[in-house]
Amino acid sequence: MDFTIPHELERYYAELEAFIAAEIEPLTAQDDNIRFFDHRREDARTDWDRRGLPNAEWEALLREATRRADAAGHWRFSAPTEYGGQDGSNFAMAVIRDRFAQRGLGLHNDLQNEHSIVGNFPFIAMFDTFGTQEQKDEFIRGGLDHERIVAFGLTEPDHGSGATHMETRAVRETRDGRTGWRIDGVKMWITGMHVATHVALFARTSGQDGDARGITCFLVPNPSEGLQIDEYVWTFNMPTDHARFFLHGVWVPDESILGEQDKGLALAQSFVHQNRIRQAASSVGAAQFCVEKSVRYARERKPFGEELAKNQAIQFPLVELATQCEMLRLLIYKTAWEMDRTAHAEIEKTLSDKVSMCNYWANRLVCEAADRAMQVHGGIGYSREKPFEHIYRHHRRYRITEGAEEIQMRKVAAYLFGYLGPGTSKFSK
């Protein structure tokens, strides 16, 4: 068993570092763009007079960084070659996201906006696996060309993790001679609706509350008649782009269905795995950043004439965090490697527990590391002069989104006790 990072991946990461130095860091330095990353970051990023949405100048900066990365051949790295990418593997993405987060806050990889010079495209796998050829052409190619932006419309105000109890309903209705569906309901925490051209919207089309079968995914244009955005919910870490919206008689044709009718939950499960493993890699990288900054500060700080680092009360918590980073990183890399050797549609049936292990533990770990970094740094650690408060506020969200940690622990338990996954055969008798 060889744990060495492949030479070609190390070579590519060196290219990314050179690109960051040549293109991204100078872009950050010009026109006071550093205000989006220093102590002014939350205020600079937020348009408080426009419902707390991202500032237009901030989003323009992200687009320019993406444009440069795409022109250099980096942004589409994880996309299939037929769409201009490099077939970047889950393993490679885990390594890159881990190392990017270890660099700290920066335009190269701003997780608050799911922005990175090496893009994450979970929708590509979803459309490639479940979409028609017309949908692939429109939404994969259109997405990479920034002509299509798809929000993910699963969560509801009264039904977050319990998606099978969603109240949004779609019923058959013919309009102007075309068969289609009328959709009524409400959705919440739907990220990116202020820029989305469509929302992949999940609604019950048959069955009873609690049934896994009977939920269908529809590609609903934004705006649509009857789709009313009520508010963008202000959060612990601003700006916000998390919409609550109502659907009052929204109508879409039959061809708007993505995947099979009544089997939409398979799409939702498909969507989360790539996000979860890459999120886990980013979280462990950010945790490592917090530990390393704390160690350096403890060596440099000399209260009472001696290094702060000589105190075991400083050493031992950081030792535990560093140990967990090392162990978790190995599990993340191994799980990503296994995902690359498993058909996309089969990951939910065979590896979902390992993905959840990585995700919930990494998101918890980075919050602990950021909190410890504040404590080690004292007053300056609590201030916005240091990035730890931003790291904590952002990554605290991950313990709820992409499946709350309790839901992911339930998934691990279902595999462990043989209710789901390969272990069911152990208890079949």
Main attributes of the structure:
Butyryl-CoA Dehydrogenase, subunit A, domain 2, Butyryl-CoA Dehydrogenase, subunit A, domain 3, 429 residues, alpha+beta, single chain, 4-stranded mixed beta sheet
Layout of strands and helices, then pairs:
Layout: H1 7-29, H2 41-45, E1 46-47, E2 53-54, H3 56-71, H4 90-102, E3 109-110, E4 115-116, H5 122-130, H6 133-144, E5 150-153, E6 169-175, E7 178-191, E8 198-204, E9 215-221, E10 227-232, E11 242-253, E12 257-258, H7 265-300, H8 312-340, H9 347-350, H10 352-377, H11 379-382, H12 388-398, H13 405-416
Parallel strand pairs: 5-8
Antiparallel strand pairs: 1-2, 3-4, 6-7, 7-11, 8-9, 9-12, 10-11
Helix pairs in contact: 1-3, 4-7, 4-8, 5-6, 5-7, 7-8, 7-10, 7-12, 8-10, 10-12, 10-13
Can you offer a commentary on this structure?
With 429 residues, this protein is of the alpha+beta class. It has three domains: 7-120, no CATH class; 150-258, Butyryl-CoA Dehydrogenase, subunit A, domain 2, CATH 2.40.110.10; 266-422, Butyryl-CoA Dehydrogenase, subunit A, domain 3 (Up-down Bundle). The protein is built from 13 helices and twelve strands. It has a four-stranded mixed beta sheet. Strands 6-7-11-10 form a four-stranded antiparallel beta sheet, with no helix packed on it. The chain has a two-stranded antiparallel sheet with strand order 1-2. The longest helix has 36 residues, at 265-300. The radius of gyration is 22 Å and the shape is globular.
